[in-house]
Fold this sequence. Notes:
D-Maltodextrin-Binding Protein, domain 2; 15 helices; alpha/beta; six-stranded mixed β-sheet; 11 strands; disordered N terminus; about 20% strand
Amino acid sequence: MKAALKGRIFSARLALGLAAVFAVAAGRAPVLAQTYPDKPINVVVPWPPGALDVYIRFVQPYAEKMLGKPLLIINRGGANGVIGTEYVRTSKPDGYTLLFNVTSSAVMAPLTTDSAKFDIRRDFVAVSDFLESLSLLVVRKDFPARNLQEFIDYARSNQGKLNFGSPGAGSALHINAETFARAIGVNMTHIAYRGYAPEVQALVGGELDMAFISAGTIRTQVLNGSVRALATCYGEPPPDMPQVPDVRKSVPGYVPIPVLSILWAPAGTPPDIVERLNKVMAGAIRLPEVRSKLGEGGQIVLGRSVAEANKAVADNYEIASKHISDLRAAGVKFE
């Protein structure tokens, strides 16, 4: 209750603060934005190449054309995204060093590990939300249950015998699976992997019973029958995948944590620069050729306003902090 109340108070203050900041910015006109940028912009992706950076690279050529300067995408991975995020946090807030990260790292790492000292709400401003990842509940191909209700019934009658995987302890997908298990009254053993690749391999090999995993990551295996999808964590599956139900419709009270890919700037970045970047990124995201790439695998393409993106971050934080507090009280470990 205290965590939820604190989250609502923070969200209200955030909304008032943003309104005041942008009112001031409007009063002095976008003076800085008229000359910005006058040099290349660094976009730090706190993960190895070939994963999250793919999305910002879809937008890159169009954003560069609109801005008139290069976007230099820098992969600075390590510590579940914490190293690169800390680097941007301590950078000069002038619009020339930005962060592209997922909320499952930027929001949740400080809540689940002592190594992350930042608070994404305090230390950053969300410039533009690119997309929301669709997650599927998948099982090994020979799992006895053929649909979600059968899975729930089977799990309830085999308490403590099933396992589930995640790409890392404390990740959004780990927490979403833990809260799902508790919502249906089931005990399952968590197995944490170092990323998606070994988790997918374990599912295909039959070592794992179940996992929540992003649709884009597991799409090929679902389509070729190596694993079976029983439900979405939230939302509708893409047209070329099995039309399975939303878990929330079958499990009342289940509230998953959305995984959002967002471009952030350090706190203190001039609001007119933040607005300029938002308009450029949103404009690029709306282009049909960009939307089609971002939406592959069932991703939900966004591109909302600065205020909407920051509210989404605050809401994400509130949901995550409540779940993590409840799970800690139940003895769940995140490190």
